[in-house]
Amino acid sequence: MASTSKTRDKMVEVARELFAKRGIQATTMNDIADAAGKGRRTLYTYFRSKEDIYQAVVKCELAQFLHDMEIARRINLPPEQKLINLIYVHLESVKNIVLRNGTLRAEFFRDIWLVEKARADMDKEEQKLIQEILDEGVHKGIFEIPHTPTMSYLMQNAIKGMEVPYISGHIRQRDNSEYQSIRENVVHLILRGIRKKAWTPSSHTSNK
Fold it and tell me: Does 50-198 carry CATH code 1.10.357.10?
């Protein structure tokens, strides 16, 4: 079993390197098998298609991301600060994954739905981490949230929505002050909605 796992892991890493260097479209299953020193039959034993191995590459890369998120959740901070830290870790970790993979970063922007398919399970795990922080904040009287599972789902998707513009900014080498402004505004947008005595549609209407 250990040998089987080692062979699969090697193929995933070889595929990642080829995808990063040449791009997905320009890399064939033959290329991956040759670079791994294995036959096509062995490669197809583990992966049915190039899309399968691409998804395995993305999942492998995102495993470190989830590890970073778990560490951020465990830090001994007040829930609000912990959530801010989680947002920063999310954006920086995804940026680093995309930028370190060369040509793969173009694929990230061109075929975002393929990436989404590969990261579906990880998204659910991240939502659980966010919910734990939200539950802690509600328990301590810091947050006011009707339903934390729903809020964690919405919040995780809101943070994901910042990934492409955030990463694009780094690729284009914008000024660091602009990154800081983006991050501060994301935090402001997300946290204002869950703080106690936050703006609500009913209170907004009554003040008119």
Answer: yes
